[in-house]
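In this section we walk through a basic example: taking a raw amino acid sequence and producing a predicted 3D structure, encoded as C-alpha cells. The instruction is simple. Fold the sequence below.
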Amino acid sequence: MSTPTPRNFSFTSGFSLIEVVLALGVISFSLVAILAVFPAGFSANRSSIDDTRAAQLAQALVATIDAQCANFVAVDCYGTPLNLSTLTADAADTKTLYAAYPSPDQPQITTAPDANSIYTIELRFDNDPPLTGTNPPVQMGLGKLNQIEIRIYGKSRAEGFTEYFYLARNKG
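The resulting C-alpha cell sequence is shown next.
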C-alpha cells in the first residue's frame, strides 16, 4: 500500500478577512459622506419652493391690486378692503393676509389664518412716496401713488421673509 501524498492547498483565490473589512470600511465612509449631502439638498429644495411660492403670491397680490387701480379708493384685495389714497406707513395701516396651498400650484389667500395656512403676508403702504432721481425729490400728492411693500413670511417668522415692492398708480 502506498502512502498518500499531502496536497498543497493554494490560497491565492478569494479575499482575506482583512481585505473584506477594509473594503467595507471604505464603502461605509463613502456612504456616510454621500448621505451627509442630502440635508443640504433638501434645505435648498425647500428654500427654492418657498421663494417660488413667495413670488407667485406677490404676483397674485400685485395683479389683484393693479386690476382695480382705476378706483384707488375701493380696492378689494382678497377680502381686505384697501383705500390706497389714505393708507400710510403707520403700523396701524399694515394689512395681514394668509396663504395656503390646497393644490401644489394654486394658492388660496384669505384674511384669517386656518390650519392650512403656510404663509403670512404683510402689506405695508407709503402713500405719496418721494420720486427718486430728482433733486430735490418730488412727490406727486396724496392718492396719486402708493408704494406697497409686500413681506411674505413662512410658517415661522424666525425663518425670515421675502420682500417685494410695488408702486400702485392711481389710474382713475
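Looking at the output, two observations stand out. Strands lie at 75-77, 80-82, 95-103, 106-110, 119-127, 145-153, 161-169. The helical segments are 17-35, 37-67. In the next section we compare this with other chains.
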